[in-house]
Specification:
- By secondary structure, this protein is mainly α.
- The chain has 2 domains: 60 residues, no CATH class; 200 residues, no CATH class.
- It is 75% helix and 0% strand.
- It contains 10 helices and no strands.
- The longest helix is centred in the C-terminal third of the chain and has 33 residues.
- The radius of gyration is 21 Å and the shape is globular.
Length: 268
């Protein structure tokens, strides 16, 4: 089956729906009209630029360029993780922890999937490596960001409880144990919900794209199952690493709570 080509004027028709939604938000005084239009413009510009980059990358197909693209995606994801936290660790620790957690989880799962499960030749073939890494990074980024935000917010709000537990002789792990567990649950919940609803409530994006491009539904289903499982693994391991390292950073060697290592707000 041939893929139906889309022209720019057809995309323009789709953009009118976003414009209509922005107008409705303005009439309802939600204050989201400008943000919605900026996000839509960023989507169009960023995806167009990525398309041009990927076309060039696919034609070259060398490991250094694929690795450079992956590192750039990782650093941008790390920045997004830091920006989504209301109380973030000072001194670049939020960026470092988020980026390191995604590197350990998303990159390792991607390499394992490419070399062991899918097995393209070469294993870093951009057609497989970049989309797979992008999906893992995007979902892992969401999980890590939610977990870190819930962790720092929980410690900030329950600081008296944590300090009381420390004074009663509990270790730092015990004093913030429930906060850590809540943060980890928060990071894992989106992918758990996505897996539970896949195929019943919604058709996942990759599967839908493959079917629209002419791939047999049975094959598209296999790839989607693989993607969902790898995303779950990447998000889970990334969340565990991020919460473990960040929570340790909130206490010093004498196991004292160090709220001075947190910013008061995202704008600090």
């Amino acid at each position: 089956m041939n893929v139906i080509e889309l022209s720019w004027w057809q995309l323009g028709l789709a953009a009118t729906l976003v414009l209509a939604l922005a107008a409705c938000t303005q009439l309802a005084r939600l204050g989201l009209g400008k943000s919605l239009l900026v996000a839509a413009a960023r989507t169009a510009i960023q995806l167009t630029l990525v398309g041009l980059v990927l076309e060039t990358l696919f034609s070259v197909g060398s490991l250094p360029w694929v690795a450079l693209m992956g590192v750039a995606m990782l650093l941008l994801a790390g920045r997004e993780v830091m920006a989504r936290q209301q109380h973030r660790l000072r001194g670049g620790w939020s960026f470092t922890i988020g980026t390191a957690a995604m590197f350990v989880s998303a990159f390792s799962v991607t390499v394992l999937t490419l070399t062991t499960i899918i097995g393209p030749t070469p294993w870093y073939t951009p057609q497989y490596a970049i989309p797979l890494l992008g999906m893992l990074l995007g979902n892992t980024m969401t999980g890590v960001a939610l977990a870190l935000d819930r962790l720092t917010e929980g410690v900030w709000r329950q600081r008296q409880l944590v300090e009381n537990r420390l004074m009663l002789g509990q270790t730092w792990v015990e004093a913030c144990g429930d906060i850590r567990r809540d943060a980890m649950r928060s990071g894992l919940m989106p992918i758990i919900n996505a897996m539970a609803a896949a195929g019943i409530v919604s058709l996942p994006g990759m599967m839908t794209g493959q079917i629209l491009s002419g791939t047999a539904p049975a094959l598209a289903v296999k790839y989607q199952i693989l993607i969902m499982f790898t995303i779950a693994a990447g998000t889970g391991f990334g969340t565990f690493v991020a919460v473990s390292v960040a929570s340790r950073r909130l206490f010093d060697r004498r196991e004292r709570l160090r709220l001075d290592r947190l910013t008061g707000s995202a704008g600090d």
